[in-house]
Design goal:
The chain is mainly α. It is built from six helices and no strands.
Length: about 110
């Protein structure tokens, strides 16, 4: 349920559409600014901003999943276990950059 609710969060917030629009606008600006060098510059700029956007989008989708599950009275215990396992797979540096909040603050009773 957690994974399905997470994916619904991406749909709800239109993350794919926002990423597409952002990438297209950056590519168009880079093409105008760099001229013939645009394909490399546009790809590099889009890749750099895409990383930041996807981390924020993943966090937003996680929070949406939790709120959706709580609103429908579905236990979030499985979500807590899943998020804790994912946290253990990440390096400490990745964890700080990927999640502004610790999962401990999302699940105070665990």
């Amino acid at each position: 349920m957690t994974v399905l609710a997470h994916e619904l969060g991406h749909l709800h917030y239109r993350h794919s559409m926002r990423a597409l629009v952002r990438s297209t606008l950056l590519s168009a600006f880079a093409a105008w600014y760099f001229g013939d060098f645009s394909s490399f510059a546009a790809g590099a700029t889009a890749a750099l901003t895409g990383l930041e956007h996807s981390r924020a989008a993943e966090h937003e989708a996680d929070l949406y999943a939790l709120s959706l599950m709580r609103a429908n009275r579905i236990s979030t215990h499985g979500a807590a276990v899943l998020f804790c396992k994912i946290e253990r797979w990440q390096s400490p540096k990745d964890h700080e950059e990927a999640r502004p909040e610790s999962t401990a603050s999302l699940f105070p009773n665990i």
